Amino acid sequence: MARTLISVPKTAKAGDIVTIKVLISHPMETGFRPGHDGRILPRDIITEFTCRFDGEEVFRAELFPATSANPYLTFTTRATKSGTLSFTWRGDNGFDQTETAAIQVT
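^ that's the sequence the OP posted. Answer follows.
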């Protein structure tokens, strides 16, 4: 599993716009760079990121080989009710990782 850092406010008022920040540790190898032996390193990138709130998609990003290693994303959403945010990263070679964070709306 890759290491992730997720920043979600623990609490928010109903109707507030909240900023969510996520980072995942991943090399994001493009498939164009030669290795130490001169052979091209195989592509290994995260191709998709999705954030869902209680099962409903609130943000999606498609990532490409030009994305830097350890991709960092920040986005906003409106806090409507308390619940759980689910973050999923998918990529080459069967990479699939999901993390969750809760938010309390008052």
